[in-house]
Amino acid sequence: VYILGIESSCDDTSASVICDAKVLSNVVANQEVHSKYGGVVPELASRAHQQNIVPVVQQAIEKANITKEDLSAIAFTRGPGLMGSLLVGTSFAKSLALGLEIPLIDVNHMQAHILAHFIHDNENKTPPFPFICLTISGGHTQIVKITNYFEMEILGETIDDAVGEAFDKSAKILGLPYPGGPLIDKYAQLGNPKAFPFTKPKVGDLDFSFSGLKTGILYFIQKQQRINANFIEENLHDICASIQYTIVEILMEKLRNAVKQTDIKHIAIAGGVSANSEIRKRLQLAEKHFGWTTYIPKFEYTTDNAAMIAITGYLKYLNNDYSNVSVTAKARLKVTE
Ligand code: ATP
Ligand code: FE
To answer: What range(s) does the Gcp-like domain occupy (predicted)?
Structure first.
């Protein structure tokens, strides 16, 4: 079974061909235009998707060494995401499926971040059910219990900002370009994580809050800069290490709570922030310290990519779970929908 996956929910245009659960190609076109604006500009994202989608899909098919007539179905991201961006992928997927007379499969982007763990790969192990997934991305921070491929329950989530936003907004305060998460990670490697203690938020149970931390960082930096105008330049590595340490501490604490509550010790991470080196390291340590079995995605399946859409499409294909051509994009979509 060959599935073409198409992802266009935010600012990356991506297409992937998989053969059963094996990835044959996974082409991602990043959009450079947003970096100078300090965030994604929806109108520009939509236009860039329109320019990218045909060549990206063509490349994915070529790299997979098949022709489009070999495809068994087309999977696309229905939501959540930016409406203008989703519409490009949705309309393209629909017309291609109609033209080729093959099934169309709509995919929930948040389920796909999680189900990327079911891509077959010699290096990766696949989590058994039930498992817990910490989804950490640009728009979401959730602890999800996965009982079966499409049976999920949100155990906790952020009440304000997502963890990716916490990274990106902190980076912006430090004058770093968008998206700042990977840069904080890079500079943090050279700094002392205990240099500057930031206050952790107090939110109940398995929920998260990051807006207070962001404000705390802003006030701290402003105060230090009044004393020393070069504070950021002189302490960039320590500041980044301290911010990253605080964020990862928050994530690990909530995961420990989730394990306590559910008694499930199979722990996965997913989403763009799961590329972060500190959370990956800490999760590996948790195998030794707490006896967890952890599932860490390959880098190319952390941030937005179409391979995760294709694998989710494949799992739906096996259930004959197809969509109607009247299916519409949905900007807001819960992982459980
Ligand atoms: P969502 O999936 O919730 O709709 P999204 O698709 O925009 O959001 P992703 O592509 O999954 O989000 O993740 C992007 C986020 O990941 C950005 O906030 C980026 O800064 C962050 N990120 C990527 N790499 C790292 C890293 N190494 N360390 C920290 N954050 C990172
Ligand atoms: Fe995403």
So the answer is: 22-310
